[in-house]
Structure formats: structure tokens, C-alpha cells
Write a structure and sequence with these properties.
Helix content: 40-55%
Strand content: 15-25%
Distance between the termini: 48 Å
Amino acid sequence: MPGENLSRDEAHERAALLSVDGYEVVLDLRSAVGDSADAVRTFRSETTIRFRRTGEGTSTFVDLIAPAVTAVTLNGRSLDPEAVFDGSRIALDGLADENVLVVDAQCAYSRTGEGMHRFVDPEDGEVYLYTQYEPADARRVYATFEQPDLKAPHLFAVTAPEGWTVWSNGAGEQDAEGVWRFAETAPISTYISCVVAGPYHYVTDRYTRTLADGTELEIPLGAMCRKGLARHFDADDVFLVTKQGFDFFHDNFDYPYPFGKYDQAFVPEYNLGAMENPGMVTFREEYIYRGKVTQAAYERRANVILHEMAHMWFGDLVTMVWWDDLWLKESFADFMGSFSLAEATRFTNSWVTFANNRKAWAYRADQLPSTHPITADIRDLEDAKLNFDGITYAKGASVLKQLVAYAGRDAFLEGARRYFKRHAYGNTRLTDLLTILEETSGRDMKAWAKSWLQTSGVNTLTPAVSDDAEGRITELAVLQEGDELRPHRAAVGLYRLTDGQLTRYARAEADITGARTVVADLAGEAKPDLVLVNDDDLTYCKVRFDEDSLATLRAHLGDITDPLARALCWSALWNLTRDALMPARDFVSVVLAFAGRETDIGVLQMVHAWGKSAVTHYAAPAWREEGGRLLAEGALRELRVAEPGSEHQLTWARFFAATASSEADFQLLEGLLDGAAKIDGLDVDQELRWSLLSPLAAHGRADEARIGEELTRDDTATGKRHQVRLLASRPSAAVKAQAWAQVVESDTLSNALVEATIAGFVQPSQRELIAPYAEKYFAVIERLWAERSIQIGMDVVRGLFPGLQDDEATLAATDTWLSAHESAAPALRRLVLESRDDLARALRAQDRDRLAG
């Protein structure tokens, strides 16, 4: 990997030297099917790049990662491939003012989800291809100047196996010779170019709209998936959300969608949630649901669809100069996803999900040692890859929500409109956007940006309430803690328990500044049972409670009538647990008392995940078994009383399977699988069957043959991934050794199967069984990082970290590795540091829980 890296300084030097006029890329993908005797299956890639020298110097390089280069021609002059190509770069000397470079190469199909990924469907043997490039893997498919600020039009021509269809960013058709030729794109960065090819199931529709100037806009829509998933594909709902999104963005952006058609491909073994390739968005196929799922799942998919659509403007039309300003696309898309979801679709409570789910990701990331400002210092591509994190996405979106409250909605949207028109098809930095927002809002954006975008860390806001003998508030102050005391526009809500309901009776918005801010508008109000700082979730902060409010939540959290307020309180209690301020067993008690009354299904799913994590990581070891038993009992109790056939019943069934640990639990699971047991209204479909079988495999009650029987029922790509995971989860030393060898000592597994094997290997009930691999982990990770692709490296380093060996010895071993490997790749060290922080946090929480016992 080090030889494949690209530094920011190199990118800036190259951008100062040249500009790119266009790419012509010709791919021959016929080798994707049939038998191949090659150790590495390859395809022919011929790239013609037209570029101009605009600065001083006559030497540069073009990026290409390929097994072989057949020919290189610069301005008609043949270059010796062996002399100029080092495996990741082609050196170019003697540049003219205008240049034509032709590179003929053999590029490799990928099994890691990077570059041109090749997938063989085990169900029917069909082959499917798609590309995934962000941040810098277009160079695995064609020769590129692989940096976002060297935009250029792209022209693709693809020869594919007979019977296939090929898609790219532009509209395409097959010519008389069988070659698929595509319309030239607008100027785009290389990382958002795209090719999808194969026998995909394809559905079409159209979006039409009359624009403000009377122009009729028509956008051809397409949606596709593997043939094996076609029977599950609800394309109508995908198109519905797509059209609602286009309506919202056209209403608010005043800039028509600029990239022609709009295809959306749901593809196998995808590393990301989705990718915003203009005109050809790709998604992980898990967003096609093979069984019954909750509305929360449909909301997540709709959010992703709208997130990627927002990128057509924020990221594709206007692109950051370098990955330092990744937030200019990801933070905006994350914010716009929830914003448009709430205002244009049936998911009107999307801000509840945002507060409870997305911000939890941000709060965790912002407390890691690797936290960074939203506008980050990105030295190279490895840094960039790791910066697709909770800071860039969720914290950035949270800060934009704060900005809307600070600058005003109208000023914010007008700023976006001017930004698109002023910088269309160009590249920008932070200052470009701030200048425009200052114009539209009249606010000092530089001071705001310094506090919110250029510093790291999360503030804590705590209420301090004084009252008089008559029970009236004499003063309510908000105390702010944190390394950087930021300005917050926040609401403070007062809640009273009346007739069994905890409802808000007073609210005030205030500018919170400095260490202590008095909210004068609440003086004289009756003393509340609960004070909720950051009511309505206007700002980004961790919320704390005064003692009376915390006591109210312990007894009455489920009585809060407002879903958003309730979600905020759940999140705040979880942060208290993670910060070792609330014992894990106390959080579990709150879950057992009130999760059954949670009406928002997305919040309930998060509460389930937090409850299980509290027992697995934060509970004192001596109480883990008891905590797990209590969760399983609570889950079964709620499962039995849930409305038959409801999404709550399904959610509790999955949680019961995730927490099952007793003989009676396992017998019930077995009965549900073989039909001997029934729960009224519960449809045990194939996806739920795998969930029910998982704990049986992990506890030694389902052997290889039984898992194989389930695969026979579900002999599909998804079934294969489940099978691999369950096989690796069995409680056997031989099984663990085999799984370790498959992931660590071999690189034959695809990215999806690496992920599945790791998930099976790491079982909380098998701490002692996998303990010997802690030492092995530290012995191999530097070699793995050097040998594998960055995606696989990240999966292995994160996934196999011995966090379940949660003791001081593992913490010391981690510190020893970090001390001995100060010169290791910074991205690798960051991953280990993050895992170390999670372990240290778990140990602190366990100590707190132990004291409570």
C-alpha cells in the first residue's frame, strides 16, 4: 500500500503543472466470463488522456495500478513500459504545452470491492461487474490523474460478453460491432466515474418537471439488481423516493439536475452504503430486503437514496479541491438526506433517527484519540480513506443543522443556490462557501467556522437549576464543558409529570456561550421534573442532567410523550454509560423498564444495540452473565406481548435471538426453526431463520451439517455469507484456527466473505477460546497492512482487534505495539489507537459498574 499512496503535496504540485481536457477510456470486459487460466484474471484497458501543461516543469506522473502495462505513448513517442511503470505510477518526461497520452494496460478484476469488482453469483453462476473508486481506485481500471481537482469530461466505450448490458455515467447504447458507447460526461473527478456491467435486472421510469423558467425537464430513471434478487426488488418505492427527492432539491436548489439520466444500481459485495457517481449511483444490495423488515429499514434506504442525490450538487457539480474539505460534500449530503427525508417523504420523523442514530456515531468518533476538525488535515490518500468517518458525516451534518439555526433556513438555502451557480463544475475550499454564506446571512462565518469546523471535540451541556420556597425557578443556567467552549444556539425544555405523562410546558431558545449561560426567559417558571438541554436537538453536544432530572428519567423515561425528546434522553443516558458516569447495569435496568414502551422503531433498535453493548463491553465481568440473562428474559417477555405481525414483534424477535443464552432460550429458537413452536403473528421468513440459527451455532447447538441444511434452503449469495459467518462462529479451537488462517494467512476470500468470517470469529461468548489470537494479532497487522488493499486492511485491523480480551494485559500489549511501531503507517496506527481507546473506555466503565454491584 505505501507505494500506492499519493500525498497532498504531490497532488497540489501536479494541479499547478497541468489541466486535463478529457479522458477516452476503452475497456474490454469479455474476460469476465468463462474459464481463465491466469492467476489474476485481467481485462484490457486503453486510456487516452488529453492534457495541457499550465505551469513550470516538464515532468509528472499518471496513476495506474495494474498487473501489466503493454504500451505507453506520449505525444506519438513510445515509452518503455518497464522503464516508466513501477506498479502504481507511470513517469512522464518531456511534456509539451499540449499532450496526448495513450496507455494500454492489463488491469485486474477485484475481489475487495475496489476498482472493477467481479462477483460470481453462486445461485446461477452469472457474473456481475461494477466499479467503486472513492477515494482513489479509478486508477485500478484506467490510467488517471487521480485527484479530485483535475476534473475532465469522460468518454467510455466498453466491449462486454454477449447478452450483457453496460451502464456508465452517461447515456449509452450498443453499436453494430457490439461495443457499448456512452455520451461524454460533463467535467467530473475520476473517483465518481463509473461502469456497471452484467446481466442485471433493470427497471425504468421517468421524472418530469416544469422548471421556473418554463423549461420542461425530463430525467430517465433506472434501477437494477442481480437477477437472483429481482423477485424481492421493490423498484416502485425506490422510484417514489427518487422523484420526491428530485422535487425537493429542485424546489430548494434552483439548479436543475445537471447529469442527464439517473440510474441506481444495487450491487453485491459492496464496501460502502452507496456512492454518488453522477448518473449511475451504486448501492449495497442489502437495501433490497429479502424478508420482512421494519419501517426503520425503509427509512434508512430512503435516507441513503436522498443522501446520494444531494451529492449530485454537493460533491459532483461542485467538488472539494482536496480531501481536507471532504465535509463540503459528505456533511452536506448527510444533512440534506435527513432534511429532505423529513420534508418530502413519508418519513417525517427522520430528525428523531438523526438525533438518536447518526449523532451517536458522531459522539463516539469525536471522543476518540483520532478525532479531528471537520475540515481535517489530510496528508495523503490513506488519511482520506479513514476520514470517511463519524466526524465528516454525522458531526458535520449536526453542525450544519446548527448553522441553519444560526444563520436561518432561507439564508442557508440561498447560500447553497449561489454556491452552485458560482462554482458549477469547479472545485472549492472552505473559504469559498463561507464567503457566500456571509453574503446571504450577514453573519460572521469565519468565527463560526473557527469554533465549529476547525476545532475538534464535543461539548457537554448541563443544567443548573435554583428554585425558591414556592417551587419557582429563580435561575436556570447551562454549564458548558470542553476544550473549546463554542457558541451554541440551543433550546432548553421544561417537562412536568402529569397524569402519567411527561410533557413539556415551557421552552426557551438561547445563545449558549462560555462556561456558564443563564437562560433568563425560564426564570419564574414552576420547577420541572425534567430539564432537557438541547431540546429539539438544535445543536451538537452531549447532554447531562441535574440530579432531579436524572431521577425522573430512571423512573419515567417511557412517559415522555414527544418522540424526539425521548430519543434525546435515551442518547444522553447511553453517553453517561459510555463515559462511566452511569453503571452499565443501571442502563440495562432502564432498557428493561422502558424499551417495551418505545414507539419509534428506529430508536428501539438503537436501544437494543446499546443494551447488548452495555452487557458485552461495559458491565463488570462478574455481572455479564446475569445482565445477558435479564436482557434475554426481557426480550422474550416483550416478544410475547407485542402486537402479532407488527414491526415491534419482529424487532423483539431479533433482539431475543441476539441475547439468547439459556437452555430454554435455545429450545424455543429450535422450535421456531423446525415449526414445533409458534408465536402468534411472527412470520419466520428466511432472513429471520438465519437470525434464529446464529446463536445456536455460536453456542454449539448447530453443527456444520445443520448450517449446511439452512444453506440448501437459501442457496444464494446472501445465504452463502450467512453460512460462512455461522461456520466461523462455532465454539471450536479448530474452527477458529481455520477462520483465522482464511482471513490472515490467505487472500482468496472476497471482501464480503472476509467481513462474514471476522463477524463469526469474534463472539462475546467465546472470550477464552479466541484469547490466544491477541498475541498473534499484534504480530501480523503491520505485514497485513503492507500486503492487502486498504479496505481489507481496515476490515482486518478493526475487526480482529482483541477487544473482547478486556483486561489490563491487552491494554498493555496494545501500548507495547504502539511504542514499538512509531514509524508504522499513520493510518494503521490510527486504527489501533481507536481500538485501544474503545478498550480503555470499556475498562473504565467496568470499574464503574463493579462499584455499583
